[in-house]
């Protein structure tokens, strides 16, 4: 019942222009700021870890702007999931770095889209440039999963789950010279297939899948994200090359390069990163999770 109500509310938002939708998202973000909640607490902890050189007032400004942008993430799902694809793609007002989007026969392209800006429209737009296979972590709610897969595949993308068969499909896509899309900054559920590397100077458990795909397929690798423009004017898509070493056989070197690339993207628009996510929950042995500290 709860999922049906949420979907109904999202459909109601489709009658509003993006400027109004983002305005409602900003109001939701203000609630995150004013009321004690998990998102605000996580953002405080993450920003203290990642920006130790900022004073308390500067971190508070960044946290509040970030939570307002987080509210927009939830609100903008409505137009991005339900508007006609032509209208959604028309929200892309500027694209930088498309010269790095190169698919070559037999090697393909890996596009890494971190939780920065509007990752939903990044995937929809990318699929207009070639056949895309996107890896995703299925939600437990089947109705929500159906909605997500239908919305994200509207421009031709193929969604595959994080299973052995899904990984196999990624290799097939790259071998065919097509595009693979991956969220590179989700914390893995276990140490298997992952390694720790600094992210803003903090150890972050990071997937090795990107390194293995790049090394075995020879695919080009880039980072891409959609920056949210002010006043609901639309989005600016940035394509950024990854640092050298992404395909290194040494796990620490590979994930260090990956996190350096994500960090470079975040520094372009730090307030639009999902700082409320528990990115550093799993830590090296003997080091506690920063989120387990006593509540203040």
TrEMBL record:
The keyword Transmembrane helix does not apply. GO terms for biological process: glycolipid biosynthetic process. It comes from the Bacteria. One of its GO terms (molecular function) is acyltransferase activity. InterPro entries: LipA_acyltrans. One of its GO terms (cellular component) is plasma membrane. The keyword Membrane applies. Keywords: Acyltransferase, Cell inner membrane, Cell membrane, Membrane, Transferase. Its main location: membrane. It is found in: Cell inner membrane. This is Lipid A biosynthesis acyltransferase. It comes from endosymbiont of Escarpia spicata. The lineage of its organism: Bacteria, Pseudomonadati, Pseudomonadota, Gammaproteobacteria, sulfur-oxidizing symbionts.
């Amino acid at each position: 019942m709860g999922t049906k109500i949420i979907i109904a509310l999202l459909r109601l938002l489709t009658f509003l222009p993006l400027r109004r939708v983002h305005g409602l998202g900003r109001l939701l973000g203000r609630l995150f700021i004013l009321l004690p909640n998990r998102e605000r607490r996580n953002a405080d902890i993450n920003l203290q870890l990642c920006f130790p050189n900022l004073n308390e007032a500067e971190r508070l400004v960044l946290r509040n702007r970030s939570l307002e942008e987080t509210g927009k993430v939830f609100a903008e799902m409505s137009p991005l999931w339900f508007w006609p694809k032509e209208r959604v793609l028309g929200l892309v007002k500027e694209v930088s770095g498309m010269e790095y989007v190169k698919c070559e026969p037999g090697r393909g392209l890996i596009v890494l889209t971190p939780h920065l800006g509007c990752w939903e429209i990044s995937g929809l737009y990318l699929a207009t440039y070639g056949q895309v296979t996107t890896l995703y972590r299925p939600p437990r709610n089947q109705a929500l999963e159906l909605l997500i897969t239908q919305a994200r595949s509207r421009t031709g993308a193929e969604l595959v789950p994080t299973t052995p068969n899904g990984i196999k499909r990624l290799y097939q896509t790259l071998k065919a010279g097509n595009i693979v899309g991956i969220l590179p900054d989700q914390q893995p559920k276990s140490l298997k297939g992952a390694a720790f590397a600094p992210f803003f100077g903090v150890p972050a458990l990071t997937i090795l899948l990107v390194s293995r795909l790049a090394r075995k397929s020879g695919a080009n690798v880039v980072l891409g994200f959609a920056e949210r423009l002010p006043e609901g004017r639309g989005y600016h898509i940035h394509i950024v090359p990854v640092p050298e070493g992404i395909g290194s056989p040494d796990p620490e070197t590979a994930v260090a390069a990956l996190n350096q690339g994500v960090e470079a993207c975040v520094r372009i628009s730090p307030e639009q990163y999902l700082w409320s996510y528990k990115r550093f929950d799993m830590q090296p042995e003997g080091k506690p999770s920063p989120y387990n500290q006593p509540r203040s």
